[in-house]
Amino acid sequence: MTLLTSSIIVSINELFKFILLILTLYTARFYFRYFTRKNKVPGPLPFPFFGTMPYSYIVGQYRFLNYCYEKYGTLFEIYVGDDLNTNREIYICKPELLEKIFSSSTKSNFLLRRPNNEGMNEFGFGKSGMVVNSDLSSWRRNRMLSVPLLMNAGFLKTQVHVIQELFQEMENYWKLLHDKNDEKIILDFTSWMHRFALDVVITSSLGRSSYALKSFYNTFTQSDGTIEKNENTSSIEYDSSDLLIRQVKSFFKALLFVKHPSWLRHTFLIYYNNFYLNEIKSLNNIIENFIKLRREEILLEIKNGKNVQEDRRDIMSLFLLKYSTITDEVIRSNLIEIFIGGNETVSSSIGFIMYYLCKYPHVKNQLIDEIDVILSSNILREITFEDIEKFEYAEALIKEVTRLTPISPLIARSNVVEDELGEYTFEAGTKFYAFMIQIYKNPEYFTNPEEFNPDRFLKGSEKISRFNTLLQFGSGLRMCPGRQSAMTVIKTFLMCFFRKYDVEFADENQELKISFDVSFHCGEYKIAIKKR
Ligand code: HEM
User: Fold this and answer.
1) What ipTM was estimated for this complex?
2) Which of 87, 217, 293, 477 is the Cys-Cys partner for 173 at CB 3.0 to 4.6 Å?
3) Which residues are annotated as a binding site?
4) Which residue pairs, CB below 8 angstroms and at least 24 apart, start in 287-290?
């Protein structure tokens, strides 16, 4: 061995020892800080650098959280990295402890959903729209602009009408895809619902179709002409619709992506970082162009003496008509969040509901009976908003399905200044999660919680008296602004469907497939429908 090689080996050895020493010191310092931290909330032991993330990677995030609840009880902590302040997450599974974080006081310290981070600013989320807006003054202004429009009776009535039209369109495609002599039509239900919800949300917010149903139908068409393409749409409209659909999905994914630290996004994840940035830029431009065009159209209509207040009931037009001085950028940021808020949430909700109805035919029959009573003499007449308001069993059904398979099993909050919760004091910027599904499954709050029983939510039934035991749409000042719209969409869909059709699983052993990121998503399953 030459002198040079042996000295290289010695230096590698030295370097290795040095790295080991640094790692040992770092680890010792990390555990010293961990064991001497001020508020020792119970939770699994974190690792240096990775916090408790390795456990989630091994067993899956949702299973890991359930395990923590079983082991550490109704208040526990985990770490999504090794910074003991910014990477700490507190999980709460006790309604009493939620009162403070869901307070409706404008002076509450818990008005943030997530503390601000570099990613949110880089993607332009941190100070716009509502969902992750951490600038409280612009969030407040956006809520004050959006909530009156989303709760507006005229808008909700228009939605009832829009859903009936879209349902009819979807029904026509179903018929075209099946032989007239088929007694039963087999459908890939969740895929259809995804497209349906997208058409609903784009039509209701932009006043124009996204052709999501139509382009989905066209994927089934055959070159031999046995199933004909629906050609009533130009290819330019199709292309822009496909682009819009893709970009809305990318926007939703980017909201989750920004939680990655800046160094990771700009190195290993640089491809995704740039892809999402471009998608968002392009989506922003498309929506701002729509707004400009609509502004011009409305001005022209007013000039021609048209009653625009009556004719235009989509959210974009309502923004332009009601608030003439706000900028296109503000309208755009709110509109995009309405697509995001109302798309996957609604399609998965309907997916879960239909699953339970196929599984529990006596509940389905009770729902059908209520529809028959409400529509009484003419089952096929136009459904009105007043019909939807009377649909009480559907309301109980939606709540019970939410209790067992909530779209939002976790609801997030963060504090702007240091504050106390239970016996602990938490630094500003701590992340809290109401782990709602554990409350929903707890016999202390719901009798026989494992039982599927919508009747528990009917007036005069079981007392669900405690505060914060069912938070389908969240609570407090950040509560979902689209809740009335969502209930109107789901109830109108159920009425449109069950006044005409009966349903069962295509495969009687069908399991419910659920995936989880921050929400629960309904997996694919097939149903068989036939005329009632
Ligand atoms: C079944 C359907 C839906 C469910 C289960 C749902 C659920 C939720 C939940 C749990 C939150 C968090 C509330 C909180 O932190 O307290 C939320 C927020 C939000 N939702 Fe929904 N939602 C649905 C439909 C919609 C629709 C249709 C829209 C729009 C039209 C919408 C727009 C939003 C927005 C913008 C926020 C953020 C509000 C803020 O931070 O101030 N959601 N939703």
Assistant:
1) 0.99
2) 217
3) 480
4) 287/206, 287/332, 287/335, 287/336, 288/328, 288/329, 288/332, 290/206, 290/208, 290/316
